[in-house]
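QUALITY CONTROL LOG
STEP: pairwise intake check
CHECKER ROLE: data steward
CRITERIA: each record must contain a sequence immediately followed by its structure tokens, with no blank fields

ENTRY 1 OF 2
RESULT FIELD BELOW
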Amino acid sequence: MSITLKLNGKTHEVDAEPGTPLLWVIRDELKLTGTKFGCGVASCGACTVHLNGEPVRSCQTFIEDVEDAEVTTIEKMEEDKVGAAVQQAWMELDVVQCGYCQSGQIMNAVGLLKENAKPSAEEIDEAMYGNACRCATYQRIRAGVQRAAEILEA
């Protein structure tokens, strides 16, 4: 079936079977590989993208559910004020260890900061819960979100 998909500000026509996860369309059809496959059951957060500005797990978001919606991936974050601040904070604080989960972590952090510009440590932990990091950089991730909030406040 043919679906019109608006991804990172551009309209794409894609052919995909109903029930195809958005993740596979993004990675395999549109060749944007920043969004990662982690678990396939929406438990790890590696596949997080924004759907109409809200973080969602693309491994469990089906292509037929995103027609005419705006999908944003990590590849577009440097052009977003909040996304750029989060990426700057990540680099300043050397948040990343292996990096595999980080696109999902960043997408979730951006969603949080757009909703709550100055979250407490507890609010960060609550919002980021469910984004797994096998390297356990959770303290650096929390510090990165706090630093991004400071950058945005300046």
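ENTRY 2 OF 2
RESULT FIELD BELOW
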Amino acid sequence: MFPYIGHDKFDPIWEELNRREAVVHLHGTQTPSSTPYPHEFLGIPIIEVPNETFKAASHLIITSKKRLYPRIKIILSHLGGSTPFLAPRVAVLSNHMGCSLSPSEILSGFQIFLFRYRVEHE
């Protein structure tokens, strides 16, 4: 499995992006889950990609990468996927699971993300 975006191996990239005050567009990947999707019309791009966006954003928060590189603006695709709804859950439960950040520090990290929503017309 390839490491998530907040992994230490990506620090040189984050350092350079921070130096440049870059804007990063974060989009989830098409990773199949451990369970099959519920219907043929609810495939991986619909079900998994928004949740992968959430997982990547959460990973940046709990690893403190977002705090370490504050000059980077990160735009989350699909209105952040499930991020706006699950951020409070991450804040409370990650702290109970040993994350050194307080719930308020975790929530404040989520508040920094920008959200992108694009509607395509036929």
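INTAKE CHECK: passed for both entries
DESCRIPTIVE NOTE, ENTRY 2: Helices lie at 11-19, 44-62, 65-68, 83-96, 103-110.
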